[in-house]
Amino acid sequence: MNVQFKKGILELCVLIYTLKKDRYGYELVHSISDKIQIAEGSIYPILRRLTKEGYFATYLAESNEGPPRKYYQLTHAGREYLDQLVSDWNLFSKSVNEIIEEGMDT
Amino acid sequence: MNVQFKKGILELCVLIYTLKKDRYGYELVHSISDKIQIAEGSIYPILRRLTKEGYFATYLAESNEGPPRKYYQLTHAGREYLDQLVSDWNLFSKSVNEIIEEGMDT
DNA sequence: ACCCAGTACTATATAATGTATAGTAGCTAA
DNA sequence: TTAGCTACTATACATTATATAGTACTGGGT
Fold this sequence. Notes:
Two copies of one chain form a homodimer. By secondary structure, the first copy, chain A, is of the alpha+beta class. In chain A, about 60% of the residues lie in helices and about 15% in strands. Chain A has five helices and three strands, in the order ααβααββα. In chain A, a hairpin with a 7-residue loop joins strand 2 (about 55-60) and strand 3. The structure holds a DNA duplex.
């Protein structure tokens, strides 16, 4: 899949998946990859950045399937940022679709 | 507007706008900016790259409103590439919308 | 006891691309 | 003649997805 299209959207995906429950990195990679193929190396930098910016709180929890998991919990600021991103996406994709429709109507 | 969302899409926009008739750079900047705000510095590198890759043929034409204009004409390969990009975009935006719908249904 | 696969995270370097900024140059109108 | 619009070029920069490598824990097969 077109790599450039993903720019900015992975952030949105990560935030959405943490909306209903706390998630850990490895889980996010595989959940998101069901829809949009991504690499492990893409998720962890995003998680660190969003945490640094105050959109996630984190805590460690033991696992019986491997090393401890770092869980990411959406903060209030994170929720607001997510809403903004979704709104931006809706406007953006609408504009792109209009350009395509107007340009391709044969 | 979210800068990252634009990555990869400007290319698609440029190609679409040259589908019905040949265009020059300055014209493209302003046409596309009606829908998605972009800078002059974004368009010209794209035009040079797409030309280098064989998706555009170019020719100069005089203008009575300023310096000569370099027109960009979509090649057959350019048309095929555009079709591919639109197809990629449709799949991508569908996936993103599914993720948003599934994640935000309260 | 040993090795391998799967799980889980971290760190670094790289590639792609939109933007900012600056510069060149032609035309028209006040 | 000067300002403003038109039109293109070039360079440096910021952001972000990826590739790659490494650390480390668990459990199963031999």
